[in-house]
Amino acid sequence: KLSNVSKWFPIKKGFGKKSYLKAVDDVSFNVFRGETFGLVGESGCGKTTLGRLMVRVYEPTSGKFLYKDSKEWIDLFSLKLSEFQPFRKKIQMIFQDPYSSLNPRMTVLQIITEGLTDSMLSQKEKKEMAVEMMKNVGLRPEYLSRYPHEFSGGQRQRIGIARALILKPELLICDEPVSALDVSVQAQVINLLMSLKGQYNLTYIFIAHDLAVVKYISDRIAVMYLGRIVELANSNELFANPLHPYTKALIASVPVPNPKLRKLRNVQPIQGEISSPIDPPACCLFASRCPYAMKVCAEQIPQLKAVEASHQVACFLY
Ligand code: SF4
């Protein structure tokens, strides 16, 4: 459960003036065990910052991250970094760029077993675990002695997945895991992630800007705009009945190859410039681009409200 989570980065401006880039602002949602929770939005909307907060790469400005461990709820943001260590294994992240996320000076064996800090494990046992993991991500165990530059992008992402899964995580945060890959390789990596999910009993938070990919893999989807969640719904419901004008525009921007279907869609593409995330005003941040903007939209922040049991939207139209 993320509860009212914010991450504001201080910005130096003129003398005496404090400014903040509000990368994540008052975000709340729950993720259920075993589900794939998609997080979508344009570049710079805060989705990657949110993922990094959950693995404590960044420290939050405020908010709680409640994690159900056995029967207890623990606020992971309130733990000291040393107390957070056991959860570091339970919550793993795989990154967008398989080219820069692997240390070029380390062999694949060293990379995959680097996180196995348990002193009870011998080198032989670690290697056996790495061999098993290589097979599970579709790579040949003989490759363990090779270096990252000897692999393609798709293979490197498989190594990144093996490095995360060897720690037996419960929650895997996938930050744009396929956007740097060729389209044909994207499908292979997505299908691998889907089969590993069942095999390892995983929960995914899947961050992406590509709606087609998120729709394919997610049970529920949250749409982010300038640091805030503007809509959250079941995947099918979101695509069949998008409510927020921004979600509608995002869906309209997905290319449709059939020109007849394209005409039928009847949704205006997104217009105007995205507002600045630095010191944003207390109003709807989509107002400058919204064709339905009203007076109230410039005066108050719309809160996320349930319009149905499984559908929430932050917009004064509802
Ligand atoms: Fe548009 Fe107002 Fe809804 Fe914002 S709150 S999306 S400006 S109608």
Task: Describe, in short, the structure shown.
The protein has about 325 residues and is an alpha/beta fold. It is about 30% helix and about 25% strand.
Ligands bound to this protein structure = iron/sulfur cluster
Mean pLDDT across the residues is 91
Strand line-up of the largest beta sheet: 6-7-8-3-9-10-12-11
Weakly predicted, low-confidence segments: none
Largest beta-sheet characterization: 8 strands, mixed
Number of helices: 10
Question: What is the approximate shape?
Answer: globular
Protein name: Peptide ABC transporter ATP-binding protein
Keywords: ATP-binding, Nucleotide-binding, Transport
GO molecular function, one term: ATP hydrolysis activity
InterPro entries: AAA+_ATPase (IPR003593), ABC_transp_ATP-bind (IPR050319), ABC_transporter-like_ATP-bd (IPR003439), ABC_transporter-like_CS (IPR017871), Oligopep_ABC_C (IPR013563), P-loop_NTPase (IPR027417)
